[in-house]
Amino acid sequence: MRTFCMIAAGLLAGLSLPAEAQDAAAGRKVFTGSCAVCHGTKPGEKKMGPSLFGVVGRKAGSAEGFRFSPALTKDGRKWNPKSLDAFLANPRKEIPGTRMAYAGLRNAEQRKALLAYLATLK
Ligand code: HEC
Q1: Which of 46, 72, 89, 90 is deepest in the core (most CB within 10 A)?
Q2: Long-range CB contacts (< 8 A, 24+ apart) of 28-31?
Q3: Can you list the domains of the chain with their CATH numbers?
Q4: Closest Cα to atom 6 of ligand 1
Q5: What is the pLDDT of residue 19?
Q6: Rounded to the nearest whole angstrom, what is the distance from the C-alpha of residue 18 to the centroid of ligand 1?
Q7: pLDDT bucket at 18, cuts 50 / 70 / 90
Q8: For the chain, what is the mean pLDDT?
Q9: Which of 34, 51, 79, 102 to mutate for ligand 1's pocket (most ligand atoms within 8 Å of CB)?
């Protein structure tokens, strides 16, 4: 009985993950499916795009060792949940001239989850 109670408590704890952790888990899947071909998540990892390690809080176009387009460097906005949300919804409309060849993630729920995941990359 005691063992049973411990297992049940463990299961309940697993089920009541904070909403943010659930979002981050869902966002990780979105990232793997839509972003990981071009973006790494480790510091300095270079693919076609810059590493997104520590992206939340840094200035646009400032990742070390990556050659950004003039459009992104000149823009220089600070990446926070709001600016990232706008950029990821429609990159080329938000920063005309960006070299990021990605049409945009139109699903707001998926963007929210993705942002929760990006915030864990630090
Ligand atoms: C086809 C490759 C490709 C895909 C797919 C892609 N990106 Fe990018 N991304 C790039 C490139 C290249 C840049 C640099 C753009 C520039 O210099 O104008 C970039 C830039 C960025 C930046 C700005 C980084 C900085 O340090 O300023 C963010 C944030 C970003 N991408 C997030 C994402 C996310 C999240 C996804 C998935 C939804 C994604 N990207 C999908 C290629 C891609």
Answers
A1: 72
A2: 28/117, 30/105, 30/110, 30/113, 30/114, 30/117, 31/114, 31/117, 31/118
A3: 19-118 (1.10.760.10)
A4: 35
A5: 85
A6: 28
A7: confident
A8: 91
A9: 102
